[in-house]
Amino acid sequence: MMTNTEPLDWIALGIATVLLMPIVVYAYVDSTSRLAKVRQETLHAWDLRKENTRRNMEMYTKYYDLALQEAKK
Description:
The model has no long low-confidence stretch (mean pLDDT 90). It is rod-shaped, with a radius of gyration of 32 Å. By secondary structure, it is mainly α. The N and C termini lie far apart (112 Å). Helix content is 92%, strand content 0%. It has one helix spanning 6-72. The protein has a domain at 22-72.
């Protein structure tokens, strides 16, 4: 005799969805927070690089001006 198991299939699917959804949500939130952290670190590194470049240009200009003054003497 053949029984209809379709309602049990839907119940099993619902239970599996309820059990797996927190895992999926946690994985998504974890990955986005890691991406945000990497982006923040990248922007910080870029700011440091810009600051170092600015400082190097100031030093280059200072020594260049000193060299010009020495050359004029």
